[in-house]
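Q: What would this chain look like folded?
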Amino acid sequence: MDGSSLDLNLLRTFLAVYRSGSFTGAAQLLGLSQPTVTTQMRTLERQAGRELFERLPRGVAPTAVADELAARVAAPLDELAAVAGPHPLPGGRAEPVHLAGPAEFLCTSLLPALAPLVAEGVRLRVATGLTDALLDELRAGRHDLVVATTRPRGRTLSAVPLADEEFVLVAAPLWAERLREPLATDGPAVLHSVPLITYAEDLPIARRYWRHVFGRRLSCPAAVTVPDLRGVLAAVTAGAGFAVLPRYLCAEQLASGVLVPLHEPEDPPINTAFLVQRLGRPENPDVTRVRDHLLHVARSW
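A: My prediction, written as structure tokens:
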């Protein structure tokens, strides 16, 4: 299929649908209405004489013909967008960079790391949330960069490893004095009578720690759930119970002794955070500045 004989506007819309995975997402990316995107794709399919997308209950899936067309037109369209450049705001300022990710990691690590760029004039708009929802919003054009706790699937997003977070089982000293020795000799069952503090009812971090370190399922329920790991940290530091936390979040408390690791396995569980963006060259050059700066700083973490 030869993309050179097709209308340029239709090809731009096609690429937006291909990368976002839906007509709605493409409409948001392009500033068009969804009916307009639908009409343009029907026109393009009629001109091509082939179906480009399989309509799904949620979004669309590209056909082999669409894969071939995207491979032909993506690079030239990205180059054309780069030449056209972003539309600066009055006064020559670039648009803000929309960055999203887990609240704790953004607030404790990323925002301090980006302070030099902000001082140089880069503007940020920061959102927080869970990975799956943020990635859907990224595909729809609501964010420029997302820090994801899992590598995204599919062909519409580009992801690079940003940082590894190590999980540590911690408690305040008053609990540690009572628990460390029995935990070492009798195993994790000794923790079942101790309040567990976590950020979600399904205990994702704690369950992973139990499975990886102890080789068994976690069976004790949460005593306190708070949807922010900084709240979990505060409660555990105050002596409410024990928790599994990312080491970066509690490193200061561990160093000062107000928190104590209950167990120090040779092979602690580690999770990789990814920096994710849509495919193609971003129109806003500050997106690339933020991305490259974060990747550079992350090497020293």
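The mean pLDDT is 89.
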